């Protein structure tokens, strides 16, 4: 009887363990799905703030291509979101990084119109100092809006820097490294677009192109 009781208890504990593990796995999977959905929604909202839905008729979130080029900050794939209206190319949203932020990597969205002017820039993530470097966020200041409609000829390439370095863009009081990194990343993105505009729009969806 004692042996049967022990076996029964062990089986019951094993059953509880299996059920518990299953519930944890289901909860984790559900949480991950919600996180992914929230991230997708936030990303799409940011993209639409730069490229209004009324300006294109394709699904910009699925009309993408992965590109690899050091001009985008590293040698890893970066997603490019393409906006089209019928057969007409409208704009591309690049996802470069600035590897030289004050506290590490800064991830950006850089939207470039087909005519090579900037539709706008947004910061996706960063670890810059609150109250100083976080002025790159559009929620914190209008600094990032200063890129709107700019291009490699406005200002001239030599002036694509912060004013402390002889450039055309403001830095923050007490924080020069962060805006310097962002300005450079935006300039590099414009250079990449200048050299690969036609290829970006011609590539099939989700194809990876290495221009390094």
Automatic annotation (TrEMBL):
GO BP field: electron transport chain
Alphabetically ordered keywords of this record: Cell inner membrane, Cell membrane, Electron transport, Flavoprotein, FMN, Membrane, Phosphoprotein, Translocase, Transmembrane, Transmembrane helix, Transport
HAMAP family according to UniProt: RsxG_RnfG
GO terms assigned for molecular function: electron transfer activity; FMN binding
Superkingdom field: Bacteria
Known cofactor(s): FMN
Membrane topology, from the record: Single-pass membrane protein
Subcellular location: Cell inner membrane
FMN phosphoryl threonine: modified positions: 176
Organism of derivation: Solemya pervernicosa gill symbiont
EC number in record: 7.-.-.-
Enzymatic class: translocase
Assembly and interaction partners: The complex is composed of six subunits: RnfA, RnfB, RnfC, RnfD, RnfE and RnfG.
Protein name per Swiss-Prot or TrEMBL: Ion-translocating oxidoreductase complex subunit G
FMN-binding domain span: 101-193
Entry similarity comment: Belongs to the RnfG family.
Gene Ontology cellular-component terms listed: plasma membrane
Functional summary from the UniProt entry: Part of a membrane-bound complex that couples electron transfer with translocation of ions across the membrane.
SMART domains, per the entry: FMN_bind
């Amino acid at each position: 009887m004692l042996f049967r009781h022990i076996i029964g208890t062990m089986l019951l504990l094993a059953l509880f363990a299996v059920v518990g593990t299953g519930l944890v796995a289901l909860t984790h999977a559900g949480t991950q799905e919600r996180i992914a959905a929230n991230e997708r929604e936030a990303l799409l909202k940011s993209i639409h703030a730069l490229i209004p839905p009324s300006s294109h008729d394709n699904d910009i979130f699925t009309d993408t291509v992965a590109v690899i080029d050091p001009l985008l900050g590293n040698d890893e794939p970066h997603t490019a979101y393409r906006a089209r209206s019928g057969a007409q190319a409208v704009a591309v949203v690049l996802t470069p990084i600035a590897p030289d932020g004050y506290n590490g990597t800064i991830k950006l969205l850089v939207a470039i119109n087909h005519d090579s002017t900037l539709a706008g820039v947004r910061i996706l993530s960063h670890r810059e100092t609150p109250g100083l470097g976080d002025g790159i966020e559009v929620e914190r200041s209008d600094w990032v809006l200063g890129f709107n409609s700019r291009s490699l000829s406005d200002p001239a390439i030599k002036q694509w820097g912060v004013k402390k370095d002889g450039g055309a863009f403001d830095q923050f009081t007490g924080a020069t490294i962060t805006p310097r990194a962002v300005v450079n990343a935006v300039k590099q993105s414009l250079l990449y677009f200048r050299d690969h505009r036609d290829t970006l729009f011609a590539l099939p969806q989700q194809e990876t192109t290495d221009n390094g």
